[in-house]
Amino acid sequence: MPENGLNTQLENQIRECFGRVVYSHKTHLKMADRCAARMAQYKVAQIAVTALTSSGAVGVVVFDDFRLKLATALLSFLSLFIAAYLKNFDPGGTAQKHRDTASKLWGIRESYFSLITDLPEMELADARTKRDELQELLERIYASEPQTDGKAFAAAQDALKNNEELTFCADEINCFLPASHRKSE
Questions:
Q1: In terms of Cα–Cα distance, which of 92, 102, 76, 108 is closest to 34?
Q2: Handedness of CA 94, 96, 102, 108 (dihedral sign)
Q3: Is 62 exposed, middle or buried (0-12, 13-18, 19+ CB in 10 A)?
Q4: Per-residue pLDDT at 1
Q5: Nearest Cα to 91, choosing from 137, 39, 167?
Q6: Residues 47, 4: contact at Cβ < 8 Å?
Q7: CB 184: neighbour CB atoms within 10 A?
Q8: CA 31, CA 38: separation in Å to the nearest integer?
Q9: Gap between the Cα atoms of 43 and 180, Å rounded
Q10: Helix/strand/coil for 121
Q11: pLDDT tens string 145-168
């Protein structure tokens, strides 16, 4: 692709789109992790409250204590509340939707990366066509994706900037490859 202002602008736009998809992908992964952790917390609470309610019910049969009856009744209502919450708000299902979205975005992310790699050898019209195709795919994904929040974005930003979760050093890549494909620095 010949060097000129228009092509530099196209490359800059494609690089910007790549960066946004990288962040969206990681944000959905972090949101999925948070939803799954919330689901696990609710399940543990549900098990604990149910166990305490059962213990209280046994205690009510053995002992005639008003406080035990009251505590058991309150625990029973709490157990009902947790079950109703989990029925109406499904953190596990939401986590899966975020994982599914992240999976779709991963493919787009890799396509943008390949496009950036191929740009120097591409005709301008072909590069624009590929960019437009990727934008159409992204539009469809974004139209049906579950919402993320600022906490998930901050976690994604930390993961990408500080923990370098998307980067590898040459030695790490070499570990994944057979000896015949390894490179030394």
A1: 92
A2: negative
A3: exposed
A4: 46
A5: 39
A6: no
A7: 6
A8: 11
A9: 49
A10: helix
A11: 999 999 999 999 998 888 877 777
d(CA 161, CA 154): 10
DSSP per residue, 68-116: HHHHHHHHHHHHHHHHHHHHHS-HHHHHHHHHHHHHHHHHHHHHHHHHH
CA pair distance 134, 75, nearest whole angstrom? 52
Amino acid identity, residue 33?
A: D
What is the value of pTM for the model shown?
0.79
The closest of 31, 41, 25, 33 to 149, measured between CA atoms, is 31
Torsional sign, CA 91, 97, 103, 109: negative
Q: Which amino acid is at 180?
A: S
Cα torsion 109, 112, 117, 123 to 10°: value is: 170
- Please give the structure tokens belonging to residue 77: 């209502």
